[in-house]
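step: validate -> pass
step: tokenize input -> pass
step: predict -> running
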Amino acid sequence: MDASFTAEQDEIRRTLRELLQKRCGSPELRTAVDTPAGHDPALWTALAQQLGLPGLALPEAYGGVGCSATELALAAEETGSFLAPSPLLATAVLAAPLVLALGTETQRARLLPRIAAGSLTAALAVPGTDLTTALTLTGPNGGEWAGGGRAGGVQARQVGDSGWRLYGQVAQVLDGHSAELLLVAAHTGGFARSRTLLFLVAGDADGLVRVRQTSLDATRPQARLELRDVEGELLGRDDSPHVLRELSATGDTVAAVLAAEAVGAADRALERTVQYVKQREQFGRAIGSFQAVKHRLADVYVQVQAAKSAAYYAAWAIGNGERVGGLALAQALEALRIAAGEGIQLHGGIGFTWEHDAHLYFKRAAGDELLFGPAHRLRAYAAEGAHLFESREVTV
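step: predict -> pass
step: emit ->
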């Protein structure tokens, strides 16, 4: 493995960082999260048109850049550093790969160029508490997490030869209130032929009710969707057996990108804390000169650097057939929680006030643990998949 970045990868990071420094400072961030969309459309347009982020990992045949998951992870690291609210995660990381993997050629040609251009935003509608299960990060996705029977969720029934109608409710859908296209996971087939399929639903479809939910992390907006006999288009073919497999494959990429994003936020939280302890004084000297404070920040630095290495490796490993995204995500979530927590402690009372940005990183850490973790479940499932705790007979 070559651990160095290419000139193109360094350029992506540098250009994105410069843009976010100009367009996503603290005032702009707070203004964006208070808008109905939960993000700045002008910033999203700049990210799409100037940098091509939505199509970074999409093939050139569909208007994308044709890069790998590594470039997407590096971009996420920069957006995570600024806590930049945008549809990037929901559109480019969760939805677009599924359209590419499962969609018919007609569906790909119709949707992917618009996603790559940033003119179409998308969201994956999976019950929020089951998102990590659907992506096989904390458990196998062969159960009834999408609904069916008494499980609730969303159900689909076929009308005629090709039409589908969806009904049910999904909560905690990332950017679900503003996405122009929804990929809805629904249960169909009844008891005899029970299966989970994905359906394309227009954001303005009749019978669809979308409500933005109040979330702990305002920079990661979520929505509740109510589908009342809504028309849906099947993604791919009815006889496709690959839905759960592709969700699982997408999950490893999602985990690697999320890990990089969390590492960016943790690195920035640590940087801001170090700057603050050099300025804050007690007993006539900066608190950063106290040995106890140095030790605490050194421990955070080690955690962040270890998580960064794990995130980079996870992104690189995707192209080599290794699945270590869940472990990297566990490491990154833990590092972010520690960095943000120490930041709050060392900033003192001001750290958790609305006027200071330290609390935003703390809320991102807590919110991501709730949505994509917790870390111990990510590790437990990875250990189970590696058969680490299986008993073995010893022959003497």
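step: describe -> The chain has three domains: 7-121, 124-240, 244-385.
step: cleanup -> pass
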